[in-house]
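hi! just following up on the protien thing from before. the input was this:
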Amino acid sequence: MSRYKHILVAVDLTEEADIVLQRAQEIAKDHNADITLVHVVEPLSVAYGSDIPLDLTTLQEEIAQQARQRISELAKRLNNEGHQHVVYGRPEKEIHRIAEERNIDLIVVGSHGRHGLALILGSTSTGILHGAQCDVLAVRVGK
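and the predicted 3d structure came back as:
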């Protein structure tokens, strides 16, 4: 088993993030590894289509501010306030970018274990897995 030195925990900031974070903490403790938290805010034009004739800048900034507040709370529980990122973009792309920039050797992400049509259409955890240059642990969350 490889020794992990730096773990990137990709969180969606729901209550399920606690499950993912707990698993990452267990691994970090076993390996004496650092943890970096990341949350990716998808641009509203991507999430809801770019044909909306509204200025979504204020709403986008409110979403990002709430994400920064929540990720800060999670980081405080880790005594890890210096290793947190809230970024804009596509989750898979941004998580891969941060993993490469920070020399991450394990990405931990939550997965709902989708199957059928949802699996065919893809999920964030599947996207992270396909293209990661390091190990990826998908922690089962949800029912």
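Residues 115-121 have pLDDT under 50 and may be disordered.
The two ends are 30 Å apart (CA to CA).
cheers
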